[in-house]
Specification:
Blueprint: H1 11-14, H2 17-38, H3 45-55, H4 63-70, H5 74-86, E1 90-94, E2 102-106, H6 108-119, H7 121-124, H8 127-130, H9 134-150
Antiparallel strand pairs: 1-2
Helix pairs in contact: 4-5
């Protein structure tokens, strides 16, 4: 036995498709966190997902609609939004017909950060996907979407 650190891995897990997909998800999540930090965007990947959903709906979404868009439950959305209000990422816009009801919209701060991210998107591509050609990336996306459809998620 040596004093050198050596990776301890299960050969069975390394050949397990579900494990590899879960591990790839962890790596992509960590990479996204690093990319956002490198761009000085102080958002978590979960907050970033909400920013991207709201960017597609400039008139705003209810928190229920946002839960559907992100496929997260309303309690999780509420927890994530608390931090987003604190960081000036989203605003509540109360509806004129019912002051108890509101829509969530991006702030100007979020729109600036979104543009910064889009401008840097080429370099922001996770390293784990740079190993794939464009055709392989498209194929991987198609396979992931096919699996999601089979699971009733798309």
């Amino acid at each position: 036995m040596t004093d050198q650190a050596r990776p301890i891995r299960s050969a069975r897990m390394e050949q397990d498709l579900a494990y590899n997909i879960a591990r790839l998800t962890q790596l992509a999540h960590a990479n996204m966190s690093n990319v956002l930090a490198g761009l000085q965007i102080d958002a978590t990947p979960e907050q970033w997902e909400i920013i991207q959903c709201l960017a597609e709906y400039p008139d705003g979404l209810t928190s229920s609609d946002l839960a559907l868009c992100t496929r997260k439950d309303r309690t999780t959305i509420s927890r994530i939004l608390t931090g987003m209000f604190h960081h000036d990422f989203v605003d509540k816009v109360y509806r004129t017909q019912d002051k108890r009801s509101y829509l969530l919209r991006l702030t100007e701060n979020s729109r600036r950060k979104l543009m910064l991210y889009y401008q840097a998107q080429e370099t922001a591509l996770p390293e784990i996907f740079r190993a794939l050609s464009n055709a392989e990336q498209e194929f991987l996306l198609a396979l992931a979407q096919k699996c999601r459809r089979a699971a009733g998620d798309l």
